[in-house]
Design brief:
single chain, about 240 residues, Rossmann fold, globular
Length: about 240
């Protein structure tokens, strides 16, 4: 039996424990991202980087494409093989920076991944090289501060800094979608005992005052809302 470790970083839509922990809205947002990717990808050979539990890979496979689904978490990959098997999907446990397939992809899909990486620019460069000319790189990330509340995030992005990662690799933007998720700060504080929310946030702000400033600025500009940007980029011929 695969041990589940549900959190905001691992979504298991068909598992009652995961659904109770994350809430219907969080799961809906994740599903919408994969639906957006499905509607805009170039079909053929597709890389799904940081595929998690595999539900999104199965959705992408419904286009008739061949999916190479990659995640660094062994339990997530085992769960994907058990719960989302598909003749057109190969699930692999490998770090994204070590992933090479030997054949260029028609599309690369990487949703809510880049904010976790120590070298986001290196990752985008690496996967852009694995993308065929005319192929599409579909990615998403939070574009409001997230490092303060989420201990698994290593980067904060704005819409400009996120886009720059891909534009600097010579990709061009095709289209985008912005997801806006209101949150209630007092409810968030109640969740600090759970793994997905950073404990002792005040101490974190004292150690990282720039992050406190980012949060205050975000509240002033956007209110109590988290924003997630999805963008479709294309590699020129």
């Amino acid at each position: 039996m695969v041990s589940l470790n549900p959190s905001l970083e691992r979504i298991y839509p068909d598992d009652p424990q995961s659904a109770e922990l994350e809430g219907a809205e969080v799961i809906r947002f994740h599903l919408e991202r994969y639906q957006f990717a499905k509607e805009h990808l170039r079909t053929g050979l597709i890389a799904d980087i940081a595929c998690g539990s595999g539900y999104g890979s199965q959705l992408l496979a419904s286009t008739g494409s061949t999916i190479i689904a990659v995640d660094s978490d062994r339990d997530a990959v085992e769960y994907a093989n058990l719960h989302y098997p598909h003749p057109s999907i190969t699930f692999l446990c490998v770090d994204a920076m070590d992933f090479f397939w030997g054949t260029q992809f028609q599309s690369v899909v990487s949703l809510e991944t880049i904010e976790h990486l120590r070298d986001p620019a290196g990752f985008v460069k690496h996967m852009s090289r694995e993308l065929a000319p005319g192929g599409r790189f579909i990615a998403s990330a939070p574009v409001t501060p997230s490092m303060d509340a989420n201990p698994y995030h290593l980067n904060d992005f704005t819409d400009k800094s996120f886009r720059k990662l891909f534009l600097d690799c010579g990709l061009k933007e095709i289209t985008s979608k912005l997801q806006v998720q209101p949150y209630k700060p007092f409810q968030l504080m109640k969740k600090q005992g759970l793994r997905q929310v950073r404990k002792n946030l005040l101490a974190y702000y004292l150690r990282h005052p720039s992050k406190a400033f980012l949060r205050m600025r975000s509240v002033i500009v956007d209110g109590f809302k988290n924003k997630y940007l999805l963008v479709v980029f294309e590699k020129p011929f």
